[in-house]
């Protein structure tokens, strides 16, 4: 049975910082991360989605966490086709065309920044979350394949936001495509019955990792602002219903990451704690990560 690691999507969200979850004396950057890592063995680093980190930042992340701790790092927005403000780009790249050459250069800098995490055994996976505008089809598959070729020797997870990728008529093709890329399919929990509701049935597509992200069940999923989209307090029955699926993923992979993105106040760490109790997961931290083999 796989290691099941439970944590949250981010550890510095303003709503979390203001919730009181971090006790007095644990609110500067170093003590926050150390406090978080004493409670959970995995976290999603979402700040790299908004701006490229520097190697010094990721080196500090590694130094402030124990052996075996995992960072799942969200890919920079330009790499996944999301709108990207010019000011988010490095100054010397702001006048460049937004083409494959620019994405390749951004990837080179992104990978260099994350190398300290990988070298320290702290990298869980890269998370390539694609926008709802990326509908399935040959053009989208070529876009994903180009990203995977750039990141050929890195762990690579894919979350779709267009439910058509997992429609029953398409799911088998999507599964086969991700397996061919050696890419982890990210399963998600969202509100159901909405135009952009995502099914939670993404299968295991790699042997080394499965990822589940809990986004909450707000009726404003896909339409409202951040607070509206992710405001939800998970109940124990809602989480308990996921146990068979998580255990099935654990039977098929070496490691499962269960991450809570209902980032309003302390709802995410509280849900993570409840899920850990339901699954019977306990610390200590898991075995150190192994570097993926070069697939070239």
UniProtKB/TrEMBL annotation:
<protein>
    <submittedName>
        <fullName>DUF72 domain-containing protein</fullName>
    </submittedName>
</protein>
<dbReference type="InterPro" id="IPR036520">
    <property type="entry name" value="UPF0759_sf"/>
</dbReference>
<dbReference type="Pfam" id="PF01904">
    <property type="entry name" value="DUF72"/>
</dbReference>
<dbReference type="InterPro" id="IPR002763">
    <property type="entry name" value="DUF72"/>
</dbReference>
